[in-house]
Amino acid sequence: MPVKIKKIDFKTKMLSRSEKVHPDEPDIFQLGQIGLSNLLSNLRRCSLKSWIKENIKKKECCFYVQTEREGFCKCGYPKDYHVEEAIAPERFLGQSWEGEKHMREVPTDAFGDIDFGGLGQNMGKYVRVSSDTPSDVLYHLITEYWKLRPPNLLISVTGGAKNFYMRTHLKQKFRRGLIKVAQSTGAWIITGGTHTGVMKHVGMAVRDYTLSSSSARGEIVAIGVAPWGIVHKRQSLVHPEGCFPANYTLDEQSQGRLSCLDSNHSHFLLVDDGTHGQYGVEIGLRSCLEKLIGEKPLGNRESHVKIPVVCVVLDGGQGTLNTIYSAMLNGTPCVVLEGSGRMADVIANVAGKPVSQVTLALIQRHMKRFFGQEYESFSEIKVIEWAKKIQDIIRMPHLLTVFRMDEDKNSDVDVAILQAFLKASRSEENAGQRGWERQLELAVAWNRVDIAESEIFTEESQWQSGDLHKAMFSALVGHKSEFVRLLLENGVSIPQFLSEEETLCELYTTMPSCLFLRKLVKRLQGDKGRRSLASPCQRRQVSLATVAEVVRQLLGSFTQPIYSLPPSHELIKMADENLDNTVIRDPGRDFFLWAVLQNNRELAQIAWEQCRDSTAAALAASKILKKLAQESENDDEEDANDMRELANHYEKQAIGVFSECHSWDDQRAQRLLIRISPSWGKTTCLRLALEANDKSFVAHSGVQALLTQIWYGELAVDTPPWKILLCMLFSPLVYTGFITYRRDEDIEREALRKEEMVAMESVTGSSGDARMKTIFSDPQDSDELKPLSCRARLGSFYAAPQVKFFWNIASYFGFLFLFSIVLMIDFQSTPSWREYLLYIWLTSLVFEEVRQLFDDPDGFGFRRKARMYINDLWNILDVASILLFIIGLACRWTSSTFYAGKVILCIDFIIFCLRLMAIFTISRTLGPKIIIVKRMMMDLFFFMFLLSIWVVAYGVAKQGILIHNEERLDWIIRGAVYEPYLIIFGNVPTNIDNAEFDISTCTVNGTDPMRPKCPMLNANQMPAFPEWLTIIMLCVYLLFANILLLNLLIAIFNYTFQEVQDNTDTIWKFQRYELIKEYHSRPAAPPPFILLSHIYLLLRRFIMRQRPQKHKQFRQRLSKTEEEELMSWETFMRENYVSTQRQEKSESMERRIQDTADRVGSMSEVLEREHDRGTTAKRLVQLEEQVSQSAKALQWIMDTLKAQGYQSKEEPPSMSRSTESEGDEHEIDGETEKRQYHFHARSFLYTGTNKKRFPVPEEKVPWEVDFTPYIAEVYSAEPINEAEQLTLDNYKNPGGRTGIRGRGVLQSLGPNPILDPVLTHWQDKDHSVLQFLAVWNEVEGCWSMPGGALKPGEPLPSRLKNLLGDKLYQRIKAKLGDGSRHNTVYEGYADDPRNTDNAWIETTVLNIHLDSTGSLMNELNRMVATSQMLSERIQWREVSSKTPVYTYQREALRLVAKLHQTQF
Questions:
Q1: Full DSSP string of 659-709
Q2: CA angle 403, 408, 414 (to 5 degrees)
Q3: Interval 996-1036: pLDDT, tens
Q4: Are 156 and 290 in contact (CB under 8 A)?
Q5: Which of 248, 485, 610, 1239 is buried deepest, with most CB atoms within 10 A?
Q6: What backbone phi and psi angles, to 5 degrees, belong to 270?
């Protein structure tokens, strides 16, 4: 991804200005942050300054030589720009000025940040560098100091440096496509950096993206490499210590021959060669930098794929052609935009044609057409050179891609750019499966699923799961969810991908920064101690055991670790019977958990669709995410909200899958809830939903049906309560069939199903549904069902939780009745039998509370169980009532506090009565209302706090006005609190009004404790307080307390009721579970008889040493067969649910609107394209009509003249469209298509030198073709004498002209014979792959045969001896002498870059076939293995057209393949 570049839009600037005008008062923390930020910024600048001064130089002229212009040096700068030593240098006296020689490097004086000013402009970075600066230094500057991430793609945009016209639609396509490919792939765009020509178009594209982008993600990196000497107003960039920032303004009107920098580029490399006003000085440095970047590994350092480089061409002239030519010779693919003008259109119009048709005349016509008047200034030699280069470009179609607006397949520029590199990579040596894998790695790095679908996952490519694992890992680490889905669709197997634990550990190690990773690091630090703090690398070494610990903390201690723990772990050492350390590897679970823990919604959804235990996985994800959200709430509220949203999403997913299961088979769905999941800590879906507080899932009808079934026990769920009550009163009714058991219903249902099957078989005559019965049958139905015995019926009846509940209700009412009798009638100093019975009854309640506290069937642990017990409101009431009873009982046995004890017990009776509300929580009608009452009690608590302010305020003020110095505390509280509180309920006081004052009702001095103190009296013994003030105070108090606050309370209650009403049913269903579970685990006998059960449990646990029984109704362990069948069924249901969701999404209104918008956009593009073509097409149609009419008119004239007797001596001209030039073309085509001319012998530079060949176009190669301008330079590595000089014309290269004369680097004029031995063998026993011994040619970048010149008397070249050694050489030489199999497959001219017009190479290709199992092959293989470290690397390569070799050697290999009857 490209680095984020700071954007300054209009709103940001206006906001910053407003902050300056009206600054907020910063707090200390903000000031500290600002100070720290400024300190770090200054440190970074100091580091950048010191590094640049040491490594970056500029160039300056050190020898002033005046030109025709007075006061100006030949370097282009004025005299006063030179240092004093350069004006009169003694060491250069008598020398002529030379650019390279008379330039020196000094530390640069221009670097820093560049601010272009204005609204919406970018803040860029720049540096002035010497043209000789090493590329690795610049790359280090860009990545380390400018903090740009290495690119996934390098786009080099070249073309016209001057402003040119481009059609609107093409311009929009280019800008949109360029930005799309840069933004999606994380590419760097490199241009000339100035505000002209193609660079301006790139800058405008970046600007359009910046203005339209609503987020700061995916900023575009546009690097401008411009000559320092042509930058207008460059002095504003100069400062020895750097500019932070330098203010630069665009001034195109006064720039003259110079150019302004483009304000939309993000970075600038200003190349300085010491000259002023010279364009093109940056080309060399830019090429070297692009080449270096193209050699860097893509992504991580372990990748074998290099950073791809693509050249995009618009318009352009000679320099553009040179750039394209050099790029393609270096293997860089180029994309040419047809319609952009000049050179781009010339290349586009000849691309795709055979080289024989791309003649000099054709290129001249196209250049006249597209260059216009500019063509007249071109010399003939230049045009010939350009024609030769264009022909060479056409010879490399795999590196050339033409973007044409009229072709639908290249409708987008971004697709054309990416396809260009993929097309080039397919033609390389690794075009096999390894090549496909490298292309896939590129597509993943670019994050272009469309490219992978259309170009990689085709019928040609054969993919195995293992081939895609590397791409899968890259896609997961890069969070590219669309690619992950694509790879899964194309064969990636998650079990194979995560078969090794190291892969999963590496995924956790590369996990992005998140809360879970911080918890992992914290856990690792705790495990490794303080030493781990010193090594950041050690903190990232994640093991699955550590992951299991942290995940168990998130899921809860009721789960088991999901991964194996070491034997030394504390959980293993614990003597915990319930801990089962056996774990099951579940790759789907591992994949999903990894995605959920980093809160990645898209990847998690894809992974969830790969899980087998999808319901449990969704509920576990909900639990984990809610726990993470709770922990990160204080640090990152936004992240916490995202986690809660994702948790709710997975709760809905679990509900959706469970609903699908429940609608298909409710019995199986219920078993899915209580099944122990081996993948998720050996817990159940129901337990996970409860721990995650997933109320909506628990409120589902299927879950409630299970709870209802548990509530009724073995009784039928439709049994009326009145029947149960009658059986409780008269138990013999149980044996009469008065009530129905579930076993009876199952027997009846099984009998009915058998009857239906028999009837079906009698109709169809076969049992075709046997398979369906096997798949969807209930495993429990395989056992024959038998009716319950009488003893089992009675036991099942009293063991049913509902029956226990009814008995406990009756028992609790009896307890309250007995308690009330004792308090009101039988509370004596000596306890009666009723009071003793009450004590026994309470003791049974105390023991039951203790049993509930220590009973832990789910394995929570005592601390967790105690915490859960205390968090329940009803348990708090139970404990409070028991403690109050004990306190009251203690006071009751003391004579001095006997009555106080009774008072405490009376208050305790109130609490016991309030506890009665818990009984009604099971009721569907009253249960939700109790929830509302609890919420309203919380509202009432906060309201009473508000009300107390008014009560105390009025009470204290009134008491102080009326009464003077009251000292009795009880009367103070009565006057200040109690009386104002009663006023709210209508008890209006009379003491504030003198009309009802009676001095006999009060005491003057407060001596009578039974009467209130009189108010202050006057001389008439009447109250002296201001009566009008107390009345006004009472009115105001009544207005606020009675009207405002009470109505506010009503409004609060109404709001709470409306808010809770919609969720009360869900909350009640969720809380219903705890009551059902409580009575399910409760002994059958009610208090006080439950004491017998408690005694039995104690004996069973401590005397008989038996383990407590677990709830089988809430946890069920399935056999392996049942587990597989249930998981397969759930997977099938999940797929149905997912497909239904996708269908609903595709049919949703939002999706339809989006599809309609896409279609409208596509139609508008087509219409625009048709409009662009329509004007030209209409003109052509009109022109054709006019020509046709003219031809008819001329024919009529000829016929008329003939009819009148007029005859012409010449035949009438033909009306055909063929022209003379076209005829010449066809003649040339017919002649040249029969012959292929040498290509390597016409390369522009003679091999190993800087000597330029004269450009020879394709059709001018034969000597018999006239080529008047041909003037080739003479070159010989060793000087030749005059005699040889005179005889040069006697030797003519049989392949034709080469562009250079002389001997070159060859030994002699004329033919220079060599021998190319082809040592072959079969790679396998099936003789399917033929290989030959090849030598890597580093200069040419291809493989070659180990051939060379022959010494006198030697049958093999000496080069073979140098490569293989004397021993192997003699053995191969012996094979030639003993009559072994060898054949001469080719003799003749060799297209070699060493050839000249007068000296050339003629080769003899000799095939020597070796036995793959012989000793000679073994020694050759050892030599091949040891040669990998040598300068000349030899290797066995396949005899194939895909192996890159010289042209003549490719033809020789084809003949070798034909000789051995194998495919080439």
A1: HHHHHH-HHHHHHHHHB-BTTTTTB-HHHHHHHTT-HHHHTSHHHHHHHHH
A2: 50
A3: 777 777 888 877 788 888 887 777 777 777 778 888 888 88
A4: yes
A5: 248
A6: -100, 105
